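question for whoever is on the cluster today: can someone run the full assembly for these? two chains, 1272 residues total. i dont have access anymore since they changed the login thing
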Amino acid sequence: MNHLDPVRHVRGESSYLDDIPVQQGTLYAAVFEAAVAHGRLRGLDLAAARTAPGVVRILTAHDVPGENQIGGIVPDEPVLAEGTVHFRGQPIALVLAHTERQAQAALHLIKADIEPLPIITDPRVAAAHNELIVPPRTFRLGDSRATWADCTHVFEGVAESGGQEHLYIETQGAYAFPTEMGGVRIVSSTQGPTAVQRHTAHVLGIGMHQVEVDVTRLGGGFGGKEDQATPWGVLAALGAFLTRRPVKLVLDRMADMRMTGKRHPYSSDFRIGLDENLKIVAYEVTFYQNAGAAADLSPAVLERTLFHCTNSYFIPNVTATAYSCRTNLPPNTAFRGFGGPQGMFVIESAIAKAAEELGVPASEIQRRNLLRENDLLPYRQPAEMCHAEQAWDTAADLYNLPRLREEVAEFNQQNTRLKKGVSVMPICFGISFTKTPMNQSRALVHIYTDGTVGVSTGAVEMGQGVNTKIAQVAAQTLGISLDRVKVESTNTTRVANTSPSAASATADLNGKATELACLALRERLLRHASTEYTLNYEGLEIRNEQVLAAGVPAETTWEKLVSSAYWRRVSLTENAHYATPDIHFDAAIEQGYPFAYHVYGTALTVVTVDCLRGTYELDAVHIAHDFGQSMNPAVDRGQIEGGAVQGIGWMTMEELIYNEEGRLLSNSLNSYKIPDLYAAPKVLDVHFLDTPGHPRAIFRSKAVGEPPLMYGIGAYFAIRDAVRAFRSGHQPTFSAPFTPEKVLLNLYSPVSARSAAAWPSVSTSIPATTSAAS
Amino acid sequence: MLHFYLNDHRISTAEPAGSALLDFIRYQQHLKGTKIGCREGDCGACTVLVGELDANGTIRYQSMTSCLTPLGNAHGKHIVTVEGINAAGGQLTPVQQAIVQEGGSQCGFCTVGFVMSLTGHSLSSKPATPETALAAIDGNICRCTGYKSLERATAALTGQLQERPATEALSWLAEQQFVPAYFKAMPTRLAALQAELQEPTTHATGVGGITNGSFVNGPNGFAAAARQVLGGGTDLLVQRLEQMRETPVRLVYDLAELRGISPVDERGRVTLGAATTAEQLRASEMMNQLFPRLPEYLKLVSSTPIRNMGTVAGNFINASPIGDLTIFFLALDAEVTLVGPTQDARVLPLHELYQGYKQLAKFPEEQVTAISFRAPRPGEFFHFEKVSKRTHLDIASVNSAAWLQAKDGIIQAARISAGGVGPIPLRLHRTAAFLEGREVNIETLQAANQVAQQEIHPISDARGSAEYKRLLLRQLLFAHFLQFFPERLAMQELLAAN
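^ ran it for u. tokens below:
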């Protein structure tokens, strides 16, 4: 079954934020931002900008009627800078003008007097200065320190993974309208409508009931609009609140890239110990997370790094410590995987290191250490309904891993310029918000008197197909056609206190709430039917819009039943609440049962590296994935394919570059590259593993949003394998992304020695160029 | 005034010729199906079709990114947005159907761009193969990222397009509902519009060349009033959109005398009109005969919509140190013809055009009108190399071209160009001079690389570290020779020796 939205998408009829017809009197907002990464804000000269054509008003921190604070986890982030600026791109003032062009033009007339302060961009430097967002955290299982002496092999090293720009094609934005009761209504491109509502109320100094947030859909989110849609929603609302006019704020692409945070870069130290059978017996890891200038979601991201620090493996003795380091970069934030991928990259690096040192394929170590039923994860939740080995073995069998290896070896034997590499990447990803209280949801379901159904939940549609799944849940539970169901926009006045659409849990949480509401309505209608038509309640059901009594069509249909229920004054509306059962976590001891369930899978990746040019192609990614009982294979396949390609981008070409001044150099689509059509693997197979699913998953159809991203990590290790095929014995530093630059330097280094000897260093300086047509 | 068709409607507008077609579509015409993604031609979310009447009276539709298309370049043409192909009653076109069917749309924000690119592909006279179908969407980025399902959609479409007849294709396409029926009338309507625009009375009402947003001269006439030349827009609308809106512009994209590729003349030279697009190079049979690997080279140069827009002279004058076409033509020792305001012309070797970073040996009022180069003769070698972070639709980290004459393994003449390794697109004169008279062997190349390393001055930036660019230039230099002399050089030894 297809995703429902695309019929409108292909006709260009789906409405996104910037498509809303503009109300008369709308003011356009442009953000004046800090041009230095750290400094004391001594003064702001707005005189020239205030008198610029079309400018109506310029807002600064002084104009905030409530509290100038939008920090979600830690209150450390003003909506408009006050006193100090902490990163380049930090909003300082908001220009409101009659046209967008006038607002943009006025930005150039504002002068900020900023006294520079020292800038830190490196998380290890920040940690050394004790610039930590929150105190460090440590997960412990067994006793790693006591185990080292017993290990046959011990290896250590450093692994670095870069950040990742979300690059949702629809940039951030919001459109706010003053309401007659003195509040605001905000149309926001956000994954977290309640976050926008809560922070707006706080900043405006009004009640949350005075702030309505509405979201129709997003043109991509990927985590980038979970917390970081909030500033723009709040700023637009502030403008509307103070001017009593509609205010529209849409970031242009380069402003979006400059001002918003990204996936966290990590630098990590690892130490791994194995016994003589290649069983991993001890693992110690220290993560330095580059959090940027404010907490944002970093503490939660950090936590998930720890949750996933052993990926899909059972390791009896683990000590994992994580530091969230404050630097002068835009606050880094959620991105599909939420710290999990960063943790997994390190354990995979540790295994690769061990394998390379021992001269065995990494897969020998990986396969031997996969999680088995009831193995404990480092946070003491057992692996239940564990499919780690099943996923691995199915992938290895179905796509013939031994044969793949032989073919690669043979190819490498016969070719000089081109070398192939292969990797196996198992994944295990926990589903639930790790902050247990967030695992709650509500659904409001109306049945109208003609039998059509409107469903409101807290889920935000951003391409993941959640609205389609919710409509499926309603239709299937009520026994009616999908055509009768409409999923409404996500609106804080219909469904309150929502959790953001994140953590892969949106369909589960909101789907379960929808199911509960529909089950209640169904029961009520069937009770009514049993009375009205004198039928035995037991055995009553609705199927294909026909009421069946003990399997036999009764004299009523869905439409008639609904109508008669109305006339008998039976409620046709239900509001249900769902809270994921059984989960808990105690951060004081770093133990608990935080996840509703885990998702498993394995990807085989084959790449070809051009060892003359340092470029590469992905030949194939073969995936065996644990969907459970997929309720929508078309949507789910799209999530797996898309997540894998996004992960491949993170591991290969997506290179965030900040200079030492904290200035983003990869600041547009021409300097920050995400996968294009030709960069996707030539073959991308997705096999649906035969797994039962989990009762805590909606209709036993497991969450699919984040897990596939981590298949992309396989691309890094396959490229590494190919590099080593060309240059045997060489061990590249563990540094992702593996750009063509790093490939070439690794093929022909020792970088430092050779370059110093052979090539004079040159320091000519020319400005960076921009061009669409290269 | 600018006159054109937007979907089924005749448009007359006084909006500035240098403004972006995208803004006109979205904010003047309120057609919201065309999305804004990047405003630099790198995502394809704003892709539209631009139909131009050709000499045979048929309309040739090309995909273009409307963010970089100057509104003035719509003059006399048929602009098609998604609203212009949507069937009445909500029915999907075969392109739309294929994308829905294969799950090729997730968040939907990029989707219309794919729909338009594939619709353009359907309207094209090129054979519909899996490769051409994929090439049609090579300028569209999907972040969600549904490329594999979009590939499946193009495969389904390629199957359907096998039935497309060679003649009367438009009728068939309308019948199959690829496009609405009004498309069949468009050639006639466009011809009528063109005729109307030629009439002197229309001139009097102000059709033509442009100052400050209003025409004072014919669009096909020489609008001397404007100093700012604007071609395909692919650089200027990225870098200076506001300025293009607000200054008079001299539109050159559609000037017949600036287009086209002449056959090899009696002196053995080929002349290109300055406004020849990269795509026209790619499509030229003669160019393909002269450069058998041209399709491969040009596949590495931006994307289909940008190649449809960007002109050769525009690439030269933008003066990017890594302009792909500049590097290509530098190795061919191309010359440019510069014409001043009094129509006085002079010819300058391309390599003499570049004086410093974005500094040209050209008066601001001079305009490139033609580019010429001596056609490679049989037996001569030519090759182009480019490496970028992403292989396609990216700006080079380093690019290079080489032209060579050799006899019995002795290099007789050489020209090597290199981009991304200095403030200007470079000709490596000393390296070439070093090579001349030497035998092709590992020692020669090693030594040539040493010379080349002295000639270049790369800096570290978003496209790579200086160290990388130096190494990469060596690799590309070697790549040329491995390409030319596979029997004389083995990669392993060449690189091992270093």
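summary bc i know u wont read the tokens: The longest strand of chain B covers residues 398-407. The longest helix of chain B spans residues 466-484.
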